[in-house]
Design goal:
It is a single chain. By secondary structure, this protein is an alpha+beta fold. It folds into two domains: 62 residues, Orthogonal Bundle (Arc Repressor Mutant, subunit A); 151 residues, Chorismate lyase (3-Layer(aba) Sandwich). The chain has seven helices and ten strands. The strands form three sheets. A six-stranded antiparallel β-sheet has the order 4-5-6-9-8-7. Strand 5 and strand 6 form a beta hairpin. This is Transcriptional regulator, GntR family. One of its GO terms (biological process) is negative regulation of DNA-templated transcription. Keywords: DNA-binding, Transcription, Transcription regulation. InterPro entries: Bact_HTH_transcr_reg (IPR050679), Chorismate_lyase_/UTRA_dom_sf (IPR028978), Tscrpt_reg_HTH_GntR (IPR000524), UTRA (IPR011663), WH-like_DNA-bd_sf (IPR036388), WH_DNA-bd_sf (IPR036390).
């Protein structure tokens, strides 16, 4: 298969419709409403089923976005996260969902370097960009290392900035693992997406200059609004 075209050279009808839709999207521009399925079928001289399949694929890819009861629109470009410390590639805003103390169980206790049963701070926040909810972050820290964090931290701000300014703790390195999953019903509701939407899951452990764990984070981002760039060097 070359560029999505089978070796036998016969292009699936929906793929041809998809290609024409991409040209139309460029012409319409970000935020523009897409014509109805009926109008597109007439425009391309194809069945509504072929149009529906092509539009559905472009919605999953994040090129189009559906608004319930309103219509389908040209989506803005995807947000980019570069695989670098303290660099999301955009200016996020955060809204608090949960801020609590919990007893640490394994393997979280081992990752944070505390005994099983020691108290940890759990911080859960919805992440937004350009006014749209794009993800959900859950962060875990040792309560003993950061006393009073739950009372003093502004959850709308940067956690790592707060740790540096108040506790003189600075992130030196991190390990981050990325995979694709589907959100749970609760996660999908908090982010405001369908459970069928693929999500990017980032699991990260940060450390200070002495190699001591700072926090363990689980970040869930919308697959249709997010891409990741990693720079590799030898």
């Amino acid at each position: 298969m070359h560029a999505g075209i089978p070796e036998h050279g016969r292009v699936p009808l929906y793929f041809a419709v998809r290609s024409r839709l991409l040209d139309l999207i460029q012409t319409l521009g970000e935020g523009s409403a897409l014509p109805s399925e009926r109008d597109l079928a007439d425009l391309f001289d194809v069945s509504r089923l072929a149009v529906r399949q092509a539009v559905g694929e472009l919605v999953l890819e994040g090129r189009l976005t559906r608004r319930q009861g309103v219509g389908t629109f040209v989506a803005p470009p995807k947000l980019v996260r570069r695989m670098a410390l303290s660099n999301l590639g955009f200016e996020p805003t955060r809204a608090l969902v949960t801020l609590e103390h919990l007893p640490a169980a394994n393997p979280l206790a081992a990752e944070l370097g505390v005994r099983v049963g020691a108290m940890i701070v759990h911080l859960e926040r919805v992440v937004s960009a350009h006014g749209d909810r794009i993800g959900l972050e859950s962060t875990y820290l040792a309560a003993e290392r950061f006393p009073g964090l739950a009372d003093r931290f502004d959850p709308t701000g940067s956690l790592h900035d707060h740790l540096r300014e108040v506790f003189d703790v600075t992130v030196a390195d991190a390990e981050e693992r990325v995979e694709t999953i589907l959100a749970t019903p609760r996660e999908a509701q908090l982010i405001g997406v369908s459970q069928a939407l693929p999500m990017l899951l980032l699991n990260r452990l940060t450390r200070d200059a002495d190699g001591r764990p700072i926090d363990r984070a689980r970040s869930l981002f919308r697959g249709d609004r997010f891409s990741i760039i990693a720079t590799l060097r030898e």
